[in-house]
């Protein structure tokens, strides 16, 4: 029991002493300039120990590398890095197609991201590199900006556009920039801007935002984007020259273009696609089925790429049948180049959504594998790491990266212990960039599209889980379906926003749907539960106990009062209105009697008044509720409207001689009640009587029963 005054007291009339808890003294609230000064001293002060700690936390490799267990870990790291590197070569080339770039830029992206994350990342297991959803988002921006700049759709992947335009993109010299050059300029600028967003969010310590992106939201978004990716690759499987659709409803626009151009299908590309699909799909299934027995997954993708490249080269598929090929892939690295500053305003909004998606995927995977292997990751450090994985490579013509689930699973299953495996992967990519890359000149685009499509199997399998998701939790399943449908059918970036808004709507909706429940006491002990959910619960004569399982705030305070009045079967507002109506009717009849002076009217008035009074007394006696106890254990917080709602409930019921007390309030609710004037005994006019807050329902019931029964003689179990 807690009194609304400054101290905790007991009720002397109670035969049983209620539970008394004394609040701990809170520290006095500091003034704002003191808080700012303290934080400035904390973050701006420098000492050798603090500087060392900051450097080690910002560059995690300096922590784990000196403690690296060479004999125990090196073999697993080399094996996992080698396998991931082999898998990453064909995927890097393939996903360049999805991002609207030449193959070499995908190899650059995988190389730089592997090195930078190994240095700055706090996760030991995730693989950072090209991710299909981000490639799709980047590719949409690239195609849009190419169209705005006046470049015609490209007829063959990796070829140069003869209609070159002047760069004019912040470069010091006005050299000509063809379509491929402009495409990677846009992609690198988007990547740079997204990286800046991510680093700024790390500086502002907003890594916690990842918790607002639920698993169902991210899964639905990835599945919807996968449908868009699948649709975008159909033209390569068929060898069609169809420009990528822009704006909203791209799925329908793309399928319309495909169907209208179906007669122009390239038979060579179609046959190659079918053969590669017939090989890769069963091969991937075998890898998944026997992954527990295999020490490492068999790199079927690499085998298909090598065989298809040889077949295309010696069969002259490009010259004889017009099949699109990768084209020239240069070796070495380009000189660093600044992003196009003039493009940043055009891509700023797109880059923000890309930054959020990349960060959310990376943090969720990092935390999942950290929890599995018993260590922790820092969400803000992950923000820094993925931000610099975008900023620094953007100077070398790379596009956006994040963690990728498939490669991370491969990395973990092949014995990865630290990010040393990422450095091994970077060595494999370096070897390809310096020596092997030109050998992929004759690789068909349709083979790259097959690799992308086959790797979408995991996301598309989520459709089989929809019935199970619906049985487990209909709200999560609804979020998944709405996010997926919006991402696939309307717009990819809009799908993420809609998913966030729908999730917030459902959270608010749950507080709107909360109902007041009547509680009863268990027969064997002092425990109260919902009388409609459990059998054998006892209620107290004259005392009704209710529970509300949601916060009370401005959006649901009226619903709380309505639900309470309905559950108590006693609406004080309606009761008061009926009384006023009766009194008004009585005055009118008194006036009528005085005006007419007729004895007959007087007799009718007396009989009607007596019958109305008897009716009201019968209704009151049938309810026999003299006290209400509200269990506040489910009320997490109150705002001003919530406090006012409780004050109104207490005031309205007091006018009917019904006492209202609160029980089991948490400290946040108690503080809100105190600040909101709920304990203001001067306003209530009765010191101590109406300001009692109880820590158990039993104490509250005992208290109100003593108030209702003369001399405090009552049976608590009645």
Explain what you see.
About 60% of the residues lie in helices and about 5% in strands. The protein folds into two domains: about 75-150 and about 180-460, no CATH class; about 515-580 and about 620-710, 2-Layer Sandwich (Transcription Regulator spoIIAA), CATH 3.30.750.24. It has 28 helices and eleven strands. A seven-stranded mixed beta sheet has the order 1-11-10-9-8-6-7. A two-stranded antiparallel sheet has the order 2-5. The chain has a two-stranded antiparallel sheet with strand order 3-4. The protein has about 725 residues and is mainly alpha-helical. β6 and β7 (about 530) form a beta hairpin.
Features:
718 residues; mainly alpha; Transcription Regulator spoIIAA; 2 domains; seven-stranded mixed sheet; two-stranded antiparallel sheet; 28 helices; 60% helix; disordered N terminus; disordered C terminus; Solute carrier family 26 member 2; STAS_dom_sf; transmembrane; transmembrane helix
Sheet with the most strands? 7 strands, mixed
Q: List how many beta strands DSSP finds.
A: 11
- Major sheet: arrangement of strands: 1-11-10-9-8-6-7
Q: Please, how many helices?
A: 28
Percent in strands: 5-15%
Radius of gyration: 35 Å
Organism: Poecilia reticulata
Domain STAS: 533-704
Keywords: Membrane, Transmembrane, Transmembrane helix
Region (Disordered): 581-605
